Amino acid sequence: MLNHSKSRKSLRIFVRFACFMALAVALATPQPAFANAKYAGIVVDVKTGRTLYASNADAPRYPASLTKMMTLYVLFEEIERGRFSRDSQLQVSENAANQPPTKIGLRAGQTIKVDTAIRALAVKSANDVAVVVAENVSGSVPAFANRMTRTARAIGMKMTIFRNPSGLPDAKQKTTARDMALLGQALQDRFPQYYDYFSTRRFSWGKKNYRNTNRLLGAVRGVDGIKTGYTRASGFNLVTSVDRDGRKIVAVVMGGRTSKSRNAQMKTLIARYLPKAKRGKRTAPLLVARAAQPTIPSRPKPRPPTGTVDVAAPLVVANAAVPSAEVARAKPDASNSPADPIGEQIAGAARVTELGYARSENTERVRLAALVEVSARRHANADAPPQTGNRTPPAKVADSRQETPPPGGWHIQIGATPSEQAARRLLSDASSRAADILGAADPFTEPVTKDGQVLYRARFAGFAGKQEARTACVNLKRRSFSCLAVPN
User: Fold this and answer.
1) 362-406, pLDDT tens digit by residue?
2) Which of 2, 98, 157, 337 has its CA 20 to 30 A from that of 288?
């Protein structure tokens, strides 16, 4: 009888131990997708554009602080347009200072440099800084949110609506895992010179130091960004870019129960699907911002030339047309500098580096059309009131363009835009910031057409050979310039 009692006691202890171990394993294992109603995920092979994994990828979800990816996208557009530089000072309003955490504690009346604001958004995900950006770019949060939604449509984010720049709770602010993957790719395709901000590990403001909320940085080989997010309604979100062993993916996890389980799920997706991504050259086109679609709410009619026009700046790539003039008919922002619709459309176009080998068609016709366009802009702007405010104006560029490229050697291309003025601004910026690299290289612009649209290459000539041009490009990229070496 005694032995039987001991046997039953031992069995109970064993059963309890087994149950305890099973529970521990369950807690340590990432929850399967179907176990969490908020969960959504996707993995995209960047080089082919193929979806390697998807679960609820098109189901509506709350973006939370993933929203700040688009806030930064719009700010990067404005830097490219010349409205701001990274040294520009942004004014802090009482509304911005009163935003709920997470924040860095800005005070009304302060200013914050654009470069610092970018870091605060990418690293700390500061809500007060998000509102500062919105108000300085568009004059108000609603106007900026409309701009964000228009830009999302231009990128191809069909299911996303933005209502604020921070991601703080709003029942109407929705997105999908697929749309967030598009945005993660678009930031890299459109702004490679700024993308390193998303891999910043630490950020300091005042006496405080902040660590990046993306704990996969430095913990998973090849992870180079991008952004985390959380609200109670959204759960724990994460967009991640991985570049490893010649393969590149963008993965999204939304609706995690905890940051730990979300990170564990992301690691599982990376381990399982990165090996299925293709090596070699990229065959998928760069993401193209199509002409803006009708916005929510609908856009008003264009104002007269003396008014202001807000533009969701399009991305132009070698294999796609430049968006039509429809882009210029976006909702006005009171904060934009006065200009005519033609000038605003040109100023709103994006620089790119993928047009190095684009075929030049009817160069003389393009040149004459460009001269007519420039003349129209100058005439329309003659009576425009001067720009006011404390924003840093675009750098002055000497009008010393060459209609045909200088002969001989190799060229390097640092951009291509529908605006000749913007192309020359790029050349001036590179000449001043990288004089030691460019030496005696000759800057010039070169008009080309692509699908009936005028583009202007921003190039430097005078490199003796391929290696010299490529070395210059390597050094320019280290200073955050895009660059492509091309034969003359």
Assistant:
1) 333 333 344 434 444 444 443 344 444 444 443 333 343 444 455
2) 337
Between CA 360 and CA 404 the distance in angstroms is 11
Beta strands in 130-234 (DSSP E): 202-205, 208-211, 223-231
Q: Identify whether the C-beta of residue 267 lies closer than 8 Å to the C-beta of residue 253.
A: no
Mean pLDDT, residues 438-451:
81
Q: 68 catalytic, yes or no?
A: yes
Q: Show the beta-strand stretches assigned E in 145-201.
A: none
Helix, coil or strand: residue 351 = coil
CA distance linking residue 105 with residue 98, whole number of Å = 9
* pLDDT for the residue 288: 58
Q: From the candidates 47, 65, 166, 234, which is the catalytic residue?
A: 65
Distance from the Cα of residue 39 to its chain's centroid? 24
Domains and CATH numbers, the chain: 36-276 (3.40.710.10), 325-382+401-487 (3.30.70.1070)
**What is the average per-residue pLDDT within 264-269?**
96
Check 68, 124, 248, 450 and give the catalytic one: 68
Q: Is 94 exposed, middle or buried (0-12, 13-18, 19+ CB in 10 A)?
A: exposed
Of 88, 93, 124, 125, catalytic: 125
Q: How far apart are CA 243 and CA 70, in angstroms?
A: 22
Cβ distance 58 to 176 under 8 Å? yes
Whole-model pTM: value is 0.58
pLDDT digits (tens, 9 = 90+) for 160-192: 999 999 999 999 999 999 999 999 999 999 999
Residue 266: Cβ within 10 Å count: 26
Annotated catalytic residue 466: no
Q: What is the pLDDT of residues 57-85, one digit of tens each?
A: 999 999 999 999 999 999 999 998 899 99
Neighbours of 436 (CB within 10 A): 7
> Which residues, 6+ apart, have CB-to-CB distance to 68 below 8 Å?
121, 122, 125, 130, 165, 166, 167, 227, 229
Q: Which residues contact 27 (CB under 8 A, 6 or more apart)?
A: none
- Catalytic, 260? Answer no
C-beta separation of 349 from 319 below 8 A: no
Closest CA to 173 of 158, 159, 163: 163
Are 125 and 213 in contact by the 8 Å Cβ rule? The answer is yes
